[in-house]
Structure formats: structure tokens, C-alpha cells
Amino acid sequence: MKSAISLKNINRIAIPALIAGVSEPILSITDTAIVGNIDINATESLAAVGIVGAFISMLIWVLGQTRSAISSIVSQYLGSDRLEDIKSLPAQAIFIITSLSILIILGTYPFAQFIFKLYNATGLILEYCVAYYRIRVFGFPFTLFTIAVFGAFRGLQNTFYPMIIAIIGASTNIILDIILVYGINGHIAPMNIKGAAYASVIAQLLMAICSAYFLLTKTIIPLKVSFPFNKEIKQFLLMIANLFVRTLALNVTLYFANAYATSYGKEYIAAYTIAINLWFLGAFIIDGYASAGNILSGKLYGANRPDLLIALSNKLIKYGILVGVGLAGVGALLYYPLGHLFSNDPAVLTAFNEVFWIVLLMQPICALAFIFDGMFKGLGRMKYLRNVLLGATFLVFLPVLLYLDHLGYQLYAIFIAMTLWMVARGLPLIIKFRKLFLPSHENH
Predict the structure, then answer these.
(1) TM segments (predicted)?
(2) How much is the pTM?
């Protein structure tokens, strides 16, 4: 069991998880970069991709919490050598979550215009939002299916196959983006923003097919739904409920950040879109080690090894800070060229360059917050995660944003509030974790 927390084993889990995790923001970043460089109405198209991306991310994060719940339960049963007892759970969880995704499509498709008006989208930006969303939304069930399968693999301590699936999906999306957005002279007409939406849906479908194939051929977990429900389904649903509330709080932050950026003008929402997508990219890179924490903490908790949980957390703190500082360093070296990948509009680039340094400074803070977030998910302590994020959002982020916006700080207000939000998310988790697992005499 000690070998589970060796650097070799942590990297065996973290590096493929990092590559798999990066596929999610790469899908959005690819759309952002390619759409931001089309010939007609590039700024409006870029703004629409950012607004719709924020809304779709909200939906995926709310319902995609199956990954953490499945991973937590499977890894704990693996650690206690009782895997056979929960073999039926993943298929039942996938059935529940994909059924909900169909309801989401039916409930949002007719009201797309109303939804994006809530994000302060108007005129051509609103028109593009509606057109883009009414295609992208059909990839939603495929994405949730894939996320749930990734949860099963994580519980089994396997991040290799999710990495392969993610590489296939991201590569497909990039190729189709270029073909469908820009077209091929004499063969395929440019589809502009709609082409980016179709590319994403096709990539998501392909990832779902690959996920089903690898789960059925490489694990003992079936996809056929069987009844009665597994005895852990109640615990699964309770975890989902707590994560659901938590993710709503998370998306309150993203909603207000997006809505305020949109209200400042099209150049500001375009700049915010670039900055937040790069923030997401950093978050998902760090998530490789957060995933290792999630996966290994569940197994160690199931095996009743608090000593190894503390040792694991100490190692992950070091690795997380190194990764966060590394990301900030790379971002600093590429500070000005990065913006040009997404837009050539001088007003957009000026707004982006003014705030990107805050995104870079956040990276080590984000690393610690995300790593302990992952470890608490592995432990199944979803209620505590819920309460911490509610406090960080409503007692820190929103008051800071409203105050700094009132002072006229615009994008600075958004990213300073997000930095303090991350501090408020991470610090309580570190303190609580050490209280839970350090021997009592070491806590004083």
C-alpha cells in the first residue's frame, strides 16, 4: 500500500489524468481560437462562444459530478477489496444521468434566446449564441456518458484509457473545427460559428463510443442496467445532491463573472473569454494531480490508512505548487503572443493583457485548492465541500466583485474576486484535512 503514494505511482495516475483533463478546455479553446480568427464578425462570434461555453460548462459541471461520486465509491470498495459488491452501480448511475441530460435538452432548446439574454447578450452576439447553442446542446448526453465512464476508470485507479479517449476526442475536434469553420475551397463551404458547434458534437459522440468500448473490453464493469438498484445508490445520490448544490454555487461565480464582463462591452467579454479559457486550461492541467489525490485518497481511506493519507497530501502540496509556479512561468514567457492566438482586435488584446497577470498569479493558489478538493471527493466528504464553496461564493466572491465593480475596476474586479474566491476554497480544506487525519498530538 505504501507504493501507492510513491512519485512513480502518483505520476502514473496524474499524467494521463492531466492529459485527459486538458481535453475539456482544449475543446473550448479550439473553438475560441478558430472562431476568433474568422473573417466576418470575429469579435461577436468569439463573445458568443464564450457566453455559450460558460452556460454549457455550468450544465456539465452540475450533472457531470457523477465522475467524482462513482470514483469515490469504486475506489473505496477497491481499497477494502470488495469491488464485486458495486459492479452494477456505474451502469445505474450512467442511466440516471443520461436520462436527466435528455430533459435538459428538452427544457433549454426552446428557450435559448431567453437564457442568453440573461447573460446580457444582445443583437448579433445573441443571434450567434442561439445558433451555436442549438447545435452544441446535442452533444450534452454524450459528454455526460463519457464523464461517468471516466469516473469508473478513476475508481479502478486507471487513467490511461480516459487519456486515450480524450486524445481521440480533442484531435477530432481540432481537425473538424478547421474544416467546418473555415471550409475547404471548392468542397466544403465555411460554416463559421455553426461549424465549431458541429465539430464539438461529433467529437463528443466519438468519445462516448470509445468510452463504452474500453469500459466493456478492459474492465469487469458492465454497461447493462440491472435492477434492483445497488445498495450504494442512496449514497451515490446523496453525494450527487451535495455536489449539485456545490456546483450551482460554482456556477453562480461563473455566471456573474460572465454577465459583468458582457455588460462592459464586446471587447471586454471577448477578452474575458480568452482569459477564462486559459484559466480553465491551467485548472485542468493542475487537475492531473488533483485526480491522483481523488483516486488514491479513496483507496487509502477504504484501506483505513490515515498515515498514508497525510503522506500523500504532503507530497501533493509540493507537486501542486511546482506545477502552479511552472504554469505561471510559462504564461509569463508567452504573455503577449498568447492573446494573438485568439484575437487580432487591438481593443480585445489590450483588455486581455491588462488582467492576464492576475490569472497567472492565481495558479499556485488554484493548485492547492484543486488538489484538496480532489482529495475530499475521494473521501466522499461532499457535504463539507458544498459548505466551503457556498461560503467562498456568497461571502467572498460576490461581495468583492460588487464592491470592486462599484469602484469601476471592470475586469480587474472579476479576476481579483476570483483570486480571493480560490483562497477561500482552498484554505479551509487544508485545515480540515489535517485535523481529520493527523494524530491529535500533531494537531497542536
Answers:
(1) 45-63, 93-112, 132-153, 160-184, 196-216, 236-257, 269-296, 316-335, 355-372, 384-404, 410-431
(2) 0.78
